[in-house]
Amino acid sequence: VSRSESHPVVGQKVVLRYELLVDGFFNGGTQFELPSISSASLAKASSFAINGSKRLEGRNLTSQIWEVYLYPEQQGLIQVPSISFAISYQDASSNSSKSTILLAKPALLYAYVPPELDIIAPYLVAEAVTIEDNWSTLKDSYQQGDVITRSVVIVATNLPASHIPPFKAKQFDGGSIIA
User: How many Cα atoms within 13 Å fall on the side-chain side of residue 179?
Assistant: First the structure.
């Protein structure tokens, strides 16, 4: 297993890449389940593998790369346990179909909160964030009961919506907030 980051910030996406190799070719669907861990959330990047080939020790092997997204949820050591991959393949040497279980090594990471973010809560860790803050058309004057509509749209690149904290508008004198 390889990873895009060894010391991520809490909330930062880490890509775990699991490379499966066979001497032959894959001829069935690969099955695996993600473990549940208390310090991070895990999600499959796709329902499909990245297929390819690799030359290793003079042999041509067929590869599948499975990507898993890890989002640290708290500061500290994060241990991702071994993952079992159930595969089916056509063996090149015997020309027969085989099924087996490949066991990935566990992954170890340390998530932290930088001092600059420790005083800001909540925060987002994303490649890019845009915020649109739109208000209904302004009038010269308002009467009691008039409605002013505000729409806030937060777009965070490569961050699931579930990782965007709820928006909390501040109360102001003479107004009411209806969400």
Answer: 7
As a whole number of angstroms, the longest Cα–Cα distance in the chain is: 84
Positive or negative: CA dihedral 56, 62, 67, 68: negative
Q: What is the pLDDT of residues 103-134, one digit of tens each?
A: 999 999 999 999 988 888 788 888 899 999 99
Q: Which pairs with CB-CB distance under 8 Å and at least 24 residues apart come from 25-29?
A: 25/62, 25/89, 25/90, 25/92, 26/51, 26/62, 26/64, 26/87, 26/88, 26/89, 27/88, 27/89, 27/90, 27/97, 28/87, 28/88, 28/89, 28/99, 29/88
Structure tokens at 34: 């993600």
Phi, psi of 41 (to 5 degrees): -105, 145
Query: Model confidence over 160-171: pLDDT tens digits?
Result: 888 888 877 777
- List for the chain the helix, strand, coil content (%; round to 5): 5, 45, 50
Q: What is the value of pTM for the model shown?
A: 0.81
HEC string of 13-73 equals CEEEEEEEEECEEECCCCECCCCCECCEEEEECCCCCEEEEEEECCEEEEEEEEEEEEEEC
Rounded to 5°, the CA angle 43-124-32 comes to 5
